[in-house]
């Protein structure tokens, strides 16, 4: 049971703000804006449709969102799917198998009322996970599916499937009984600084934690995956005994 954690969600480049981390450790998942055309027979919700508490820049309020990952409990979603057209992330995701985990982390804004395990201004936090219901599907395999294939229905609302043209290199379907947004964010940043990795990154993942680690895929072996899935927020700030 391996896992890969990838960076998702809004940031200071797209659309100019990060989702917030609240004082109780909960957070708001804010998708990035959709940057590609959407098929004429498909629709993508706008930031206004999501009814967010985050103060999205006014010129983005009516802009469609790239709602990926898709969490069934999130507005305008009914399944757990994820697609990616970026080779740096698609390659490690493609190496996963059914039963493995795809973890999602985001950079979130923090303020003076942040929990004591959160860094000032911003930090990277795990916000959700999928346990893969099936092996990842490559973009080529998706294109070759018959029109009535079950996977066509499963991925019908995925943001990359809605794009014109379809551009995902990999598609992932999460098991609905073992996938979802977290109630509380799990820090990957040290309490001192958002850019400083904590032991989850440096001890449990295969990443060094040097440079812009918060933009890179983080790989976890089976033992580390079990540890990460069992973490509470404060656990991430304590040294690993691995």
Short summary of the structure?
By secondary structure, this protein is of the alpha+beta class. About 15% of the residues lie in helices and about 25% in strands.
Describe this protein's structure.
This protein is α+β, with helices and mostly antiparallel strands and 242 residues long. The chain contains 7 helices and 12 strands. It has helices at 47-50, 87-94, 139-143, 150-154, 159-162, 199-204, 222-229, and strands at 3-7, 32-33, 65-66, 81-84, 101-109, 122-131, 137-138, 170-173, 180-187, 189-190, 193-197, 218-220. Strands 9-6-5-1-12 form a 5-stranded mixed beta sheet. The longest helix has 8 residues, at 87-94.
Strand content: 15-25%
| Number of discrete domains | 1
Strand order of the largest sheet: 9-6-5-1-12
Look at the structure and give the mean pLDDT.
Answer: 96
Ordered list of secondary-structure elements with their pairings:
Blueprint: E1 3-7, E2 32-33, H1 47-50, E3 65-66, E4 81-84, H2 87-94, E5 101-109, E6 122-131, E7 137-138, H3 139-143, H4 150-154, H5 159-162, E8 170-173, E9 180-187, E10 189-190, E11 193-197, H6 199-204, E12 218-220, H7 222-229
Parallel strand pairs: 1-5
Antiparallel strand pairs: 1-12, 2-3, 4-8, 5-6, 6-9, 7-8, 10-11
Keywords for this entry:
five-stranded mixed β-sheet; 17% helix; three-stranded antiparallel β-sheet; single chain; 242 residues; alpha+beta
